[in-house]
Structure formats: structure tokens, C-alpha cells
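Curious: why these numbers?
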Amino acid sequence: THRAFEDQKKAFRNNPMPSLTERLENLKRLKRVLLSNQDRLLDAIDRDFSCRSKDESLIAEVMPSIQGINYTLKNLEGWMKPSKRHVSVLFQPASNRVHYQPKGVVGVIVPWNYPLYLAVGPLVASLAAGNRTMIKMS
């Protein structure tokens, strides 16, 4: 894991501010991977939980994950725009804005009960923010 972490940090240093296009492509790639491996993921969850209904896993894990990606794809451009903040009259005519920037490498520790959904949700947020992400399943 140490080497993977170092690789992630190096990748972030090489591209610390991914463009909107790069972030959207990362999210679309994640969506494609989830959809193309849906049956394999459902089978793995079924085995891991000793006969969890595939319908439950589909409704509680896969579908909300895909919906979260779709929602993020739709809204990411607006989220990346700087937002204005109030400036006290004491500092007029100054203006104030927040420019959102990636933090680097984000760690996600996933609980056991809904592993796919609870891994993908934070992963989507992290990728949308332009971060690199490491996931540890419990």
C-alpha cells in the first residue's frame, strides 16, 4: 500500500488540477466499468454475504452508485466555478471568491454492510473534486 500511495502522490503532482474534461472522463470511465461488470459485482456481493439477493444489491448498491455518477456528471461544471463571498464594508471595494482546488490523495475506508455503494459514493466525490483516491475495503 505504501508504494500505491507514493504512486498516487506522484500522479497528483504531475497533474494537480485536472480539467473539467478529465474529471468527466474519469467519472464516465467509472460508470462504464460498473455497468460492464455489474453481474460480476453482484455475484461477488452475493458470495461475500452468503446469499444476499441480487435484487437488493442492484437496488441498494449499483443503481444509487450509477445515479450518483449521473448527478455528478450533470452538475460538476457548476460546482467547479468559483463562488463569491461577502466582503465587509471595511474592505470595500474588494471582492472575495472561493476557488475550489483538489487536495491530493484521498483515503476512503469502506464499511462492510454495503461495500459497493459506500466505496463508489466517496470515490465519485473525490474524482469530481480532482483528487486521487485510495480505497480500503473492510
User: Anything to note?
Assistant: The beta strands are 83-84, 97-98, 105-110, 132-137.
